[in-house]
Amino acid sequence: MATAAITAERESYLNQEYGIKSWLLTTDHKRIALLYLLSITFFFFIGGFFALLIRLELLTPVGDLVQADTYNKLFTMHGQVMIFFFLIPSIPAVLGNFLVPLMIGARDLAFPRINLLSWYLYIIAGILMLHCMLTGGVDTGWTFYTPFSTAFSNTKVIEAGLAIFISGFSSILTGLNFVVTIHRMRAPGMTWDRLPLFIWAHYATSIIQLLGTPVVAVTLVLVVLERAFHLGIFDPTRGGDPLLFQHLFWFYSHPAVYIMILPSMGIVTEIVPCFTRKRIFGYKFVAMSSIGIAVLGFLVWAHHMFVAGISLYAALIFSMLSYLVAVPSAIKVFNWTATMYKGSITFATPMLYAFGFIGLFLMGGLTGLFLSALGIDVHVTDTYFVVAHFHYIMVGGAVMGYLGGMHFWWPKISGRMYPEALGKLAAIIVFLGFNLTFFPQFILGYLGMPRRYWQYPPEFQVLNVLSTAGATILAVGYLLPMVYFLWSMRYGKVAPANPWGASGLEWKTTSPPPTFNFERTPVVDWEAYDYEHIPAPQEVRVGG
Amino acid sequence: MADSPMAVEQHNPALQHHFADMEQQRQASSLGMWLFLATEIMFFGGMFCAYLIYRYWYYPEFAAGSNSLDITLGTVNTAVLICSSLTVVLAVHAAQLGKRQAQVIYLALTLVLGLAFLGVKGIEWTSKFKEHHIPGPSFHFEGAVPGHPDEPVDQRHAQIFFSLYFAMTGMHALHMVIGVGVFSYLLYYAWKGRYTPDYHTPLENSGLYWHFVDIIWIYLFPLLYLIDRKK
Amino acid sequence: MFDTFPLWPARASTTAGSVDALYIFLVALSLLMSMAIFTMILIFAVRFRRRKGVEAEQIEGSTALELTWSIIPLGIFMVIFVWGAVIYFKERTPPRGATEVYVVAKQWMWKLQHEEGQREINELHVPVGRDVKMILTSQDVIHSFYVPAFRIKQDVLPGRYTTLWFHPTRPGTYHLFCAEYCGTQHSGMIGQVVVLEPAQYQAWLSGGGAAGSLASSGQTMFVQLGCSTCHRSDTQGRGPELVGLFGKRVQLEDGRTVVADENYIRESILTPGAKIVSGFKPIMPVFQGLVSEEQLNALVAYVKSLNRSPSGAAGGPVVVQTGTTPQEPKVQ
Hints:
- The complex is a heterotrimer.
- By secondary structure, chain A is mostly helical.
- Chain A has helices spanning 20-24, 29-57, 68-104, 112-134, 148-152, 157-184, 197-229, 242-276, 283-296, 312-340, 349-372, 374-380, 384-414, 420-447, 461-491.
- Helix content of chain A is 66%, strand content 0%.
- Chain B has six helices and no strands.
- In chain B, helix 1 (22-57) packs antiparallel against helix 5 and helix 3 (71-97) packs antiparallel against helix 4 (100-130).
- The longest helix of chain B has 37 residues, at 155-191.
- Chain B is elongated.
- Helix content of chain C is 33%, strand content 19%.
- Chain C contains seven helices and twelve strands.
- In chain C, helix 1 runs antiparallel to helix 2 (63-92), helix 4 (214-224) packs across helix 7 (293-305) and helix 6 packs across helix 7 (293-305).
- The chains are: A mainly alpha, B mainly alpha, C alpha+beta.
- The interface between A and C is large, with 92 and 85 residues.
């Protein structure tokens, strides 16, 4: 069945039905994944546009391109759009949605209608956010710190808060769907230790979405109520405590970083074995490290607050716990590297992105050690050092992984191959552009340039110019894949069922898969990453 | 394993295409509901956490605020909710036995009790409004520090008690309103005879939700009404 | 070379050196770690690239290796943790006898007042070689007091005091930034810290038009607001005696004890009902909204000054040190 002849007319989820209604009312997880793909790409470019304006403003030390208020709105909405409308849904709602049922041999997610509902919630939230941006925007920073957000800002805090509140429900429903699906819908023989590690990563991610998101939801509700009805829970002039807000906010928003990075790690864990033709080194440790990150991730939130006025002893405990969460991340990096040992390695575009991910994530992780060290954090927190650090994790890490995954599974999603040479070129441009944009910011931060500054002392200019130059290169690198993915949908080479010779159930059905994924429910009697028994692809694309 | 959709024998009309059998479908829904309730616990958990912290800081105001609540109405509401949980259980039981009429009666009773709870809550809130206990510019609380009848409490701290009181009971009431909506839906379909001994998962899961909302109140009632009450 | 392309800001405090030492250690460690990983990847990528007739060798994994690369990093991490914690502990523990400067932050300026009474806006003059303790509060949103050259930062919260301290080691002019986003002109809420040689600092002090020390203006207010009618030093008044109070443990009516620090005095002025001292009636009026942050600072400074002057206990007008030499507070 995997070698079934490919014909253009073969029925797939893409051509089974036509018409706008067949898409907007679909309950097929693959079609919903594509709906998500369109919407998050839209928000990615909006957020990217804000980022570009920010970088252009910072080209010169004086505030000359936009007004201070506009600049504050730009970085606020850049953060809110990128985090809540791109990064958090990106991999889970697109690739996870598409692949979780395929990888475990299910016909769909457990709750297809709830899946569609979660997309509609996302769209409602997105429209509200767009409306908020077009009618004045919001300037609190994505963190909504009180009492600025509740009592001082005169922008549309309530609307932005509600938009994020609704998008949170969308995220919760996706996570809930995944957990139930992974528990209850696995094909016969697909035991927990045969699950692809992409699934383990999504399982861990979903747990965070389920347990973390409600807390930020109720926190935002309290902010909205406080702003609308003057409650005073977070307002010091009414006896409230602004630090309580920060605790509640970071209780979700720190684990949220793992919502963004864990799925990306899952992707890399699929790509590396495929292009080294090897079983992943230390399957159990990689799987458990995902769960470890999810659990420990809930215990470190106050490391965002070392200078906020928390007690000395709280700071010591949270600093130590932050180092614990670094261990499972390190385990992953070591295992990816070890997997390459005695492999048979090829360098297709997804593998280049995986290399890029490992490099950038490693640097992001190592600079995390700086920030967890209390003495250094006092100096570099709220500076560009932090900005660089979390972009290395969330853009260098999460987005590299996302793009790697998009290239890896694009043949499965669209049934077409993307142009390999352009793919490699884009991967290299993204990697170089990214480093040029964000590496100078580490130095800027240690030199003391605070974040969220509209204008800055002139001695910081050289590094800012470098950063802006990098951002323009990065923009090209991000536009390029969008162009050739679109191009390939029509002109790309028709993809076989398993172009990479990869393991995993998703490659055992046709490309693109039929509506119910498999002609008959597969029965799994092999281990995960069984590359010993899978022939390498006939068509070798090395050096393409 | 021949379980493509057409091959399933005795196909239950309620079985969705992507499940292998009714058992898998039931287990999936049930797990989904429990996970949803876990998110709800985290949602209320944030407010409980805020309540406990402020109660520790502003004990006199929280005690005075608590004493000002109407314990009779609170107790009545607690009893009403516990009874409604019982009727929900009886409705599920009736569905398991295939008794349509009993199902309808118990669901209707649940609805009545739920609405009664909301009605009593409405009375309580109205009196709070009259007494200017609603946080905002016109907030005024005349309570005294417990044990010191002549010593007025800090208005700002009392306002925080009432902020949390309204946020928590308001969120709980919102959940009750949603529950009433869900149970009206169930009542309609129970009337139509949709829930049978083979298929009554919606009833079971909505029951779980109702019990959860009940349990939240079981925590709210002592925290808000009882804990600081001294004779 | 570092002058044209610096990698760290000027080192102008005792903290700066210890922070930089850990930083340089971490940079070296990171370079080592990333070079090790990158070299391995590079070697594997070349050595094990696909070749005809060579199959990959399937390796299951190795628990011994996994444990090794979990436990060794954890050990290194704990070293970094302890090192960072030691620096932080010092940063957060102001030495006794530090010169005190009160700071009120507001959108978008820093208002500072020295113990000696000098007021400054967006500028802070301090002498080299002396411990300086900042007592910070905000009158609107959260700000953050950040001096990169000292490697110190502390969020400034409305409604309470936070503190930080530093010991300048090198004369010069350094940036003062607001590091917590605070609204439109956040990036304009900057100023400078001028570290002067002691002699220049004396000259600067005497040049300023300060009308008496902060504590003495606090004393004036103490009388004006009527505090002195109950908080008496000659006889047991209706309020607790304040002489020697600062830094002591106070027994409260509800059984708790608290340390009388700046935040306690602040709270006891603004909302006296919050913590009633054992044996006293809650009769003090609330001053919330009646005194400004600056006035409050003066009152706090006055109450603290009562520790330093033995004459306070002897009754009569309280003598307040107005000299420039700070005295060791006699904290129990």
